[in-house]
Every structure is written in C-alpha cells, then in structure tokens.
Amino acid sequence: MKRFSAFFLLALSAVFSYGASPYGTYETLSRPEKDVFLFDKITDPNINEITYCIAQPEGKSGISDKNLDLHIKAAFKEWTYGMALRIKKEGRQEEFKDLIKILERKIEFKRIYNCDLSNNPKFVQYFPTHKHGQTADINFIEAPKYCQAIHGSSVTTAFFSMQPNVPPYICIAKNIIDVILYAEENRDIPTIITSEEKELVKQIPFLMQKIAYGKYTPREQDLIWKLNKSFFYDDDPTYFSIITHELGHAFALTDQYTSRGEDVLYSSSKTGQGLMMRGYESISCDEVDGIIAKFYKGKNKTFTRFCDENIKIKNGVEVTQKDTPVKLFVGKNSKHISILTPTSPENLTYKEERLIDNKPLNDEIRETLKTLNIDYSKTSPDTLITIYAKGLMKAGNLPSGTWQVNVNLEGKLTLVEVNYNEDGTINSVKQKPLSSDTMAKKIADFKNIDTSKIEKIIDETNPLFRQR
Ligand SMILES: [Zn+2]
C-alpha cells in the first residue's frame, strides 16, 4: 500500500480558526455550541432545499460541468442517504431510527448559477466581475491560483472554510482526477490491471449517476469507494473523495489525523480512520460516530461507538476512562508538529498523524513543550524530538494524575513527569536525564511489551519523519 505523504495530510487540512478533533465534531470548550451549517440544515424539518454554486473564475477545470454536478450531488448523498446505509449495515437501525429518518429525508441539493462571492476574502480583488449574483448556501470555488493564495500554501489540494460573514465555501486548489471521465474515456490507470478490475471501472459513470440521483445499495456504496481508492496512485485522491471529505467538514466533521485533537474535550481516545482521516477511503465507523455524536449533543443520550464497542459517547463526549499512550513529534522547524497515537498497546505502528502547519502552534502543545524545557525554536532543521507519554485520561480527554513522558531530543533522552490538576491543566513538571536502555524499558513498561520491540519503534518511525 502506498504510504500517504505529509503533503497529502497538509493538503486536506481545513482552514479553521477554532479547534478540532476526531470522531469528531468541530467544537471547542470555548465554543461548544458551534453550529455547523449543513448538519443543522438537514436536521431542520422546514428545510427541503440546500443550494450550491460552482465558481470557476480561472477558467474551466478538467472536469465537465455534468461531472462536477454528479460528484457534488453524490458527495451530499453519501453524507445523508449513505450515512443511513452505514448505520443500517451494522444492524443498528432501530437504535438510531430517529436519525435515519432525518438522513433519508428528501432534501434537494440544488445548483444555482452566477455565484455571488463578493463576501469571500479577497475574491473581489481577484475577480471583480463576480459580484451581485445569487447567494448559495455553499460555494465550490475551483480556482487553483486563488485557493492557493488565500490558503498560503502551494501544496494544498482543497479546503473547507467557514468564517463569520462569509458564505461557507470549498476551495479546490488543484486539478483532481475525475473518475467518471477516466472511465468514459477508458484511460489507463496504473493500479487497475486485471480485466475484472477494468470491467468494474466501466461501471463508474452509472454508479455515480445512481448515487447522485437515486437509491443505492451497500454493495454499490462499497464499490464506488473501492474504485475511487484504486485511483489513489499518485498521492492525489479523486475529485469525488476530495469533495466528500471537504463536504464532511460542512457536516460538522473534522480531520482525524490524530486521536488527540486541538481541543481536549471533543477528542476521542482512538485513532481516526476513514474519509476524514485519509481522503481516499470511504466513510467509516469514525464518521458514523462523529455524525451520531453531533446528533446526540444536547440530547443527553449515550451510544456505543461504531468503531469501538468499549467506548461510549454521551451527549457528544466520550465517557470511557482512558489510559492511552500518546506520542508527540516535533521536527524540522517550530511550526511542524505531529501527534501520533499507537493503534493499540500491542501494535507498534503509528497510524495517526496531524501536521499543523501554516498556523501558530497550538497553545496546549506549546505549553507542554515549554514545561518540558524544550526550546524548539533553536532546533536544527534535522532535529527530531519524539515524546512518548502515558497517563490517565478522564472523560472528555482531560489528562489526569501524573503523566510519564519520555523525550528523545537528538538522541538526548529525558524522563519527564507531568502532574495534572483536576481540570487538566499542568500542576508541576519534574525531569531527569535518562539512559537509552532505561528509556526503552520505560516505553516497554507503558506498552506492556518487551524491550526488544522498543528499538524497533524508534527505528521504524524515524525514516517516516525524515521524508519531510
Ligand atoms: Zn479536511
């Protein structure tokens, strides 16, 4: 399987001024009632129509108008009808019948033309002729130069933005693979080799049409995602994957590159998976958990996670006591930080990652580094700081009691003990130098494994980071 690159992760991150976390809804301690508009719209029985507009101010993209519409409508359907299919597939339709009713409700996702983008940041400056059209509920701006300029990054693929006084929009900053076109033109795809696979690809136009406009089966849902994933061979997910991922943000979901998000309360203890974690995968149990968590928020209802039967979410917040090791990575320069979490105590591969770039360091992480006495601003470009930590997480992901943290800074090892107050703030920090053997033993103790596997963790993870 092709390893996803750091650039890919960055490319999919949403530009949000507030915190985010997995399973996962865009909510923070400071703004717990943050409305995310598409979710609110579909749950409002008075709303039967949601409008969108596609702006292509820099000229036509490689995708035909017809296919743009199909992809966008299909993405919307996946978050509603498709989400209900996922819940039913697990046999939990009775438990969530109230939500399924909402998800299966007929809402027209209708395109309007002549997008009014005069409230968008800098848009008028770039494209003065796009004033005074109709205002859609959500805009799709296909404009690589413009999107890269306002995102401040040339490696961005797409992002979702919702800011005060600006209609929500999805900015598409690259020309992305259109699977319908590839299938229609019978193009060669490096990852599709066998005649059976080639036959399946031919079904894409029909399948997309059916998903966009009709009812479809779990088998067809699985197939379209499988086919889209098979196009992921050049580090760029397909247009359908990108649009569905970004639209997921409009449905209240957040990127899931880490289990500990920017906000401690609305984080989950488990790793993310699926579409909001990796843009080329299908809607997974994580997204189902996220949508239900959002739906139950304020209703004081509890459910067991689809991703993990040991974890319950009550009123939008995890209630399970956690004791999850966390790995924090700081590298290259002060703006790059990833937080990794082991997939399980036995599993040594770290599948989660969050790359925070183009924005200030998260306060919580900054505070942690400060209390650990790590001057990350003076680190050389090749510096790797790895931190293994373990401590008790209380409900809502508040760190509790004493956390043991092992820091590896350019081969210099330090054991740090962080004592947390009841509210999750840091009370005191003690640290002392550590020999390599002792550190390996400490990590082995955390993870209930033998020491020989620990060297492997360090060896395995470093080459991944050096890719940056
Ligand atoms: Zn994203």
Could you explain the architecture of this structure?
33% of the residues lie in helices and 19% in strands. It is of the alpha+beta class and 468 residues long. Strands 10-9-11-12-13-14 form a six-stranded antiparallel sheet, covered by helices on one side. It has a five-stranded mixed sheet with strand order 2-1-3-5-4, with helices on both faces. Strand 6 and strand 7 (312-314) form a beta hairpin. It is globular and about 60 Å long. It folds into two domains: 6-314, no CATH class; 326-466, no CATH class. Residues 1-22, 28-33, 258-267, 320-362, 379-385 and 455-468 have low confidence and may be disordered. It is built from 15 helices and 14 strands. Helix 3 (65-89) crosses helix 11. It has helices spanning 6-12, 37-43, 65-89, 97-103, 123-126, 144-151, 179-184, 195-201, 204-213, 218-230, 239-250, 285-296, 363-371, 436-447, 452-466, and strands spanning 49-55, 108-111, 138-142, 158-163, 166-172, 302-304, 312-314, 317-318, 326-331, 337-340, 384-394, 398-409, 412-420, 426-433.
